[in-house]
Design brief:
heterodimer; A: globular; B: alpha+beta; Beta-galactosidase, Chain A, domain 5; 2 domains; 11-stranded antiparallel sheet
Chain lengths: 159, 593
């Protein structure tokens, strides 16, 4: 069953990344998760993207294992339940994780209290990520629901 | 901001250009940035006042009171310096698009540094961001105290360092400040595309500006040219470098779309594509000036881009190598109401036979320089030569991309013959498969017979524009430049003399008899033809006059109107600068002989 979570986490992250990238190409959002994650580690753009993709997959696996733990506790799994988890995950990401927690730990991300000073700042995402485009939340919801459904589906299949 | 403007439009010659190898901004003599596409040269404009003075968007920066301006590029760079002299004092504005450096730099960055040189000068600035050729819904918000304009996947932050507090109104971000002697303020545009914005810090901006100056100077120091007109040659090289799209190596024909060939008329085309036709001129110029990396990159791009249409060569390709170039009209009014303003270029679908001669010529030059071609390149060039054998008898649109009925243009046929000659020469050196050499030789002979019997006027003692007519065309000068025949053969001498007699007015050469503006490239071609024919005095005299026609910072557009003295057509024009370099190099070589 845990292998289902691992495989589902990897597959789900691939789909999530693809959906957000497609949304970016379509002009829906400027959200770029690998860029956001990678610039927390390095200021070099090229390295930041590469590191960011690696980190994104690590976080994708960690979240899949968290989903798995909850599935074990409640004794149920499945793609619909996973999709529901994904929905909550997306709302959490938009309202707290990326909006509040990421600027706190990200050394280059601006907050509402910052002005451009001695170091460059990355534009903060804002509540529900609207700074990166009004429809960013929709794209994020869609991507995370797909991620959750895939993780839930794989866990269910493996179980 | 009315300095010499007509209905809000600055003369084309009033523009200077700054760029970063990905995009180019045009800055008018009055300090307004009227053209900027982000993130790339062929993206949609965010400042498009060049094509619609009222709605297009611009970045104004000028003294509040009346002023005079002088301009120059910092020596050996593409960093532009505009000095405003007012009754109250003197201010210098330094404009540059910074090159990426260590640290987290913006996706694209345009820096305007304002230095107070004398007195106290009140200044004002106003940024009207109009994304998507002024068609996108743009919103202005604040991020970490910085005003930001956003539209879809694009965003533009306006950072002021000492240049006054930004206010927003009427869809613009604006500010006022006074600069005093010794003062230095910065206005920085940080652009993002499909990613969060980077809001730069002043210290890092200044470091990038300094590094950018240094990078341009080092690039210029690496150029090898020891002939006459050195300043014009170096400025042309720097202008070309602005048009090199660094991510792919392609070279754009110009930085703009739809600057008209005739004011008020509809001959307004998008030149933000790369034309394989210019490839031989490009390689010749790049190699002559010691730009080996750029030459390698361009030749690789050329073969890569043409892969999708192989063995057919398309007239133009996008800078990223894709073949699509669908043409459409924008809702902008066009430069001085020269409507329509277009993006895309319908010429992509035309047949232009001369392209093959230029590409095979480029391959030969590349092989001479690099010591050879790889097997795959050789095979593909041989397939192109085979393709020419099957198509040269067709009529085509010709080098000038005329949109009327196709004709048997003389220069097109000549270049097909040149292509097959180069293919044979490369095969003899073992660089192309030899299987079809006999066929290439036979077809070359047939083409030459066609040109000599159908495209030569005994009455004029010259080749003519197309089979069976008596009109001339200055594209025939390319026969000398591409070495279709010995430059001092009677036919070549007669053709150059006829073009000068019928199509030149002073230093200006027209493509054909009734054209409104002279085509500056053709003037430089005439100078190069003179040089190749050993007529050095005529070449030097013509070059002296032509070098004097550049604008105050050494840039050229496509055409020059003899009566009004105006530049016409897209700007800065790569082909004109290429022709200048090649003419100067040809003159220098001929002088040394």
């Amino acid at each position: 069953m845990i292998w289902g979570a691992i495989v589902g986490g990897l597959a789900g992250t691939v789909v999530l990344t693809t959906i957000l990238r497609a949304a970016s190409e379509l002009g829906v959002t400027r959200m770029d998760i690998p860029f956001l994650l990678g610039t927390a580690v390095t200021a070099d753009r090229v390295h930041a993207k590469a590191i960011g993709y690696a980190l994104h997959f690590v976080f994708g696996l960690i979240f899949a294992l968290a989903y798995y733990a909850i599935f074990r506790v409640i004794g149920r799994s499945g793609f619909l339940l996973g999709a529901g988890f994904g929905l909550v995950h997306a709302l959490f990401a938009g309202s707290a994780l990326v909006n509040i927690l990421l600027p706190v730990v990200h050394p280059r991300m601006g907050t509402t209290f910052d002005a451009a000073g001695s170091a460059p700042l990355l534009e903060p995402p804002g509540f529900l990520l609207v700074n990166y485009g009004r429809q960013t939340l929709l794209a994020t919801l869609l991507a995370h629901v797909a991620y959750g459904a895939i993780v839930g589906g794989f866990v269910s299949l493996a179980g | 901001m009315n300095h010499g403007r007509i209905d809000g439009y600055a003369p084309i010659a009033d523009y200077g250009a700054v760029g970063d190898g990905r995009t180019v901004a045009l800055i008018a003599r009055d300090g307004a940035i009227d053209w900027l596409c982000v993130p790339d040269l062929d993206s949609a404009s965010v400042f498009g006042a060049l094509l619609d003075s009222e709605r297009g968007g611009r970045f104004v920066l000028e003294p509040e009171a009346g002023y005079e301006t002088t301009r120059r590029y910092l020596p050996g760079t593409n960093v532009l310096e505009t000095t405003f002299t007012t009754a109250a004092g003197v201010v210098r504005v330094t404009d540059a698009m910074t090159l990426p450096a260590a640290g987290l730099s913006p996706y694209r960055e345009l820096v305007r540094r304002i230095d107070g040189l004398a007195g106290e000068v009140p200044m004002r600035w106003r940024v009207e961001s109009r994304f998507g050729y002024a068609s996108a819904d743009t919103r202005i918000e604040h991020r970490a105290g910085v005003p930001v304009a956003t539209a879809g996947r694009d965003a533009l932050a306006v950072c002021s360092f000492g240049a006054g507090e930004a206010t927003t109104s009427d869809g613009a971000i604006a500010g006022r400040f006074s600069t005093r002697t010794g003062g230095a303020e910065l206005l920085v545009l940080s652009a993002a595309h499909q990613e969060p914005l980077v809001l730069p810090a002043r210290r890092e901006v200044e470091a990038r500006l300094e590094a950018t100056r240094g990078a341009w100077r080092r690039w210029s120091d690496g150029r090898k040219y020891a002939g006459p007109w050195p300043d014009a040659v170096l400025r042309s090289a720097l202008a070309l470098k602005l048009l090199v799209y660094a991510p792919s190596g392609a070279i754009a024909a110009a930085a703009t779309t739809s600057l008209p060939e005739e004011i008020g008329a509809d001959r307004n085309w998008d030149y933000r594509y790369s034309w394989p036709r210019d490839s031989a001129f490009t390689l010749e110029a790049l190699l002559a000036l010691g730009c080996a990396p750029e030459a390698y990159a361009f030749f690789s791009w050329l073969l890569h881009a043409s892969q999708l249409t192989h063995p057919r060569l398309q007239v133009l390709y996008r800078l990223d190598g894709r073949p699509e170039a669908e043409e459409r009209s924008l809702s902008l009014t066009g430069y001085r109401r020269s409507h329509p303003a277009r993006v895309g270029n319908g010429a992509a679908g035309q047949t232009q036979l001369d392209v093959y001669g230029e590409v095979l010529g480029a391959a030969a030059k590349f092989a001479d320089f690099s010591g050879g071609l790889d097997r795959d390149q050789g095979r593909r060039l041989a397939e192109i030569a085979d393709h020419i054998c099957g198509i040269w008898e067709q009529p085509d649109a010709g080098i000038w991309e005329l949109r009327g009925e196709p004709r048997h243009f003389t220069q097109s046929k000549m270049m097909c013959a040149v292509a097959l000659r180069r293919a044979c020469e490369l095969a003899e050196r073992g660089l192309l498969p030899r299987k079809h050499v006999e066929r290439w030789r036979d077809e070359e002979a047939r083409i030459r017979a066609f040109v000599d019997t159908r495209c030569y006027s005994q009455r004029k003692g010259s080749y003519v524009r197309s089979a069976g007519e008596e009109e001339l065309d200055s594209a025939l000068l390319l026969a000398v430049l591409a070495e279709y025949d010995e430059p001092d053969s009677s036919h070549m001498l007669g053709t150059v003399d006829a073009v000068r007699r019928e199509l030149a007015r002073g230093p200006l050469v027209y493509r054909w008899a009734d054209e409104p503006g002279a085509f500056l490239t053709c003037s430089f071609w005439l100078a190069e033809a003179f040089a190749r024919q050993g007529r050095l005095e005529q070449a030097a005299a013509l070059m002296d006059e032509l070098v004097g026609l550049a604008n105050d910072v050494g840039l050229y557009a496509e055409e020059f109107h003899a009566e009004t003295g105006e530049f016409l057509g897209n700007f800065p024009q790569g082909l004109t600068h290429l022709a200048l370099i090649n003419a100067a190099v040809a003159y220098t070589r001929a002088s040394e002989r």
